[in-house]
Design goal:
mainly alpha
Length: about 70
């Protein structure tokens, strides 16, 4: 099958553009997935920190009150 130079060039260009588009789409998908993962991790970290914060203050405050009470008592 004979193809003129221009037709071959157009075909090559079309193929290249298709490949580029596919690559771009894949990159976009990967970026979105990465962003989603980061978001999830941030949420998890925030939740963990909040949980830790909720647990910590009562124990530290309680200890502080006991120490203060023992000092004033003696």
């Amino acid at each position: 099958m004979f193809m003129s130079c221009g037709a071959r060039w157009r075909k090559k260009k079309k193929k290249k553009q298709k490949k580029k588009k596919k690559k771009k789409k894949k990159k976009k998908k990967k970026k979105k997935k990465k962003q989603e993962k980061k978001k999830k991790q941030k949420k998890k970290k925030k939740e963990k920190q909040q949980q830790q914060q909720q647990q910590q203050p009562p124990s530290s405050r309680g200890a502080g009150v006991e120490v203060a009470a023992s000092f004033t008592g003696s």
